[in-house]
Amino acid sequence: MSGLYETLHKIKQKPGMYLGTPSLTALRFFLEGYEFARDELGIESTEQELEFHGEFQSWLQKKFNLETVSSWAKVILLYSADEKAAFTYFFDLLDEFLQRHQILEGTDSQVTNGKGKGIKENGSKTELMALLDNLSEDSLVQVREFAESLKQGNG
């Protein structure tokens, strides 16, 4: 069985096969049905599912500087021209959401907060998140540049 992110990738590639049309609302309903079916069958949530359902909403709200009880789908629709554009935008945002974790999985270099404090490869995610929260602007630029180099395969 495919994991949640693999399933989403399949939907992105062939939305008509899974949803009928590329629609964010249809995707949201699909994901709710997926989660409901797994619960009904007594299948425990995977790490990917826990991450997506537990963190994507709050990450999105932080990204857009919002406090809302609206679903992630409604937030994305707010920033989109229509359902199809929102569907495409969701996958852009999902990629961004997932990339933030790739940075946390360790690198060959040491990241510092500009005050001499740093964390070496394979440090805990909690330590790294605390460090990232306190980065200077110069260090944030370095982290962004490093992340871009990783995306381009230069890391």
Describe this structure in words.
- This protein has a two-stranded antiparallel sheet with strand order 1-2.
- By secondary structure, it is mainly alpha-helical.
- It folds into 2 domains: 101 residues, no CATH class; 41 residues, no CATH class.
- A hairpin with a 5-residue loop joins strand 1 and strand 2.
- Helix content is 66%, strand content 3%.
- It has 8 helices and 2 strands, in the order ααααααββαα.
Write the layout of secondary structure elements.
Blueprint: H1 4-13, H2 15-19, H3 24-40, H4 47-63, H5 72-78, H6 83-104, E1 111-112, E2 118-119, H7 125-133, H8 137-151
Antiparallel strand pairs: 1-2
Distance between the termini: 31 Å
Number of domains: 2
Strand content: under 5%
Radius of gyration: 18 Å
Which word captures the global form?
globular
User: How large is the count of helical segments?
Assistant: 8
Label the structural class: mainly alpha
Mean pLDDT, all residues: 80
Major sheet description:
2 strands, antiparallel
Low-confidence segments: 106-123
What order do the helices and strands follow? Answer: HHHHHHEEHH
DSSP helix fraction: 55-70%
Number of strands: 2
Sheet with the most strands: spatial strand order: 1-2
